[in-house]
Design brief:
alpha+beta; rod-shaped; transmembrane helix; membrane; transmembrane
Length: 410
Amino acid sequence: MASFPTLASAMTGYVVRPDAFKDYPNDDGNFVSFSEFDIVAYVVHDAWRINESDRALVGYSPVIGARSLRVPLMRKASGTILSNICNKWDLGSAHGCDFANSISRYVTEYGLYGLNQTPSVWRMFGAGPIQLPPPVLNVTAFYLTRLLGHDWVHPETGQRPFQDPSGVMYMHEKLQTTYSLDYLDQYGRCQPSADVYRWGFSYFQVFIMAIVLLVWTAGAWMVWLKAHINLPLDGPQYCGEAPRGWKCLLPLASTMQTQLAAADIDPTVLTEDDLRSKISRRVKRGAVSFERGTPSPTTRKPEVPLSRFLCRMAKERKWRVAIFCVYLGVACLVFVEYVALWPTPRGWVVFVVTWLASLGAYGFLFCAHMAWLLWLYLPCSSAVVVAVCLDVFGVIGDNKGLYNIWPGGN
């Protein structure tokens, strides 16, 4: 018990927050923060026709993603792209969300690769239409999720090239360069950010804490169970009931009377001060003990079946059993949500051990009539189990469990 505060405090702390970087293109040893990149949706090779640069890179619009991201991410499971392009450019600028949506509508109407030899009209919110002579704009795409054109079929091969996640391409807007998945996997690095820290949660320390709690709980449970099963109370229906109230007061008074008589002290003829003085001088210490029961009509059998003992305890505490069932259901939901859906050996071990420790401690408090502790223990233990699962699967921190900063999972 004395080590619990130390172990608990060791579970948390501040650690250096790692950020993703990529080698600078000129190979001078510098790095570029990954937050300066975005995921390419389209490339307009003849953008000068719509009053842009010769080659315009079009990033993803957060209409299909989220606005609060620091870096461009791609979901590990579904491949859905989350972009932060509108945080970097104003909504009304040429390279903002309107530009991405306008290109998306344009390729839906006129196609990709400039294969359509017909006049076209370029439209964008906040600007007048531009009449374009043949051919249409030469627009190429990479990996598309829900942007228009993702189901485009190549007229010669009959394939849908923009539905392959391996074709995703990253871009650096200032450098006007693109980088493939393989390039980022090879040259990407995760380095500590200078003077930037985040709250850390050590799953390894939680695992040790759970093991210690489980061992302590199992030991306390066995001592408690052995003591209650062997209590020498009359009647088999009272097996395992600890003396309390009047059942505790009467044996105590009887034992005190016997020990006073053995010390030749008659409390009926002495004042309070004289009685206290003689007890302190003649009776050094006293104790109430219970001998182990023996099979007899008046003494409970020591071989009480464990099933009968547990059934009687459950009937007497039916409301606590109901609370436990609710707790068990919540734990099972957490198990299905964070372990069964993303199974990893580390997640299984940590979850099972933590939950067993919580279950064992609950059982100890339940049988020990510590109902007031149960109301505090239930939410706390549930929070610990959920926190462990969230840390194991990366929900706390930088979302490395559900998302990959680097597509290769570094």
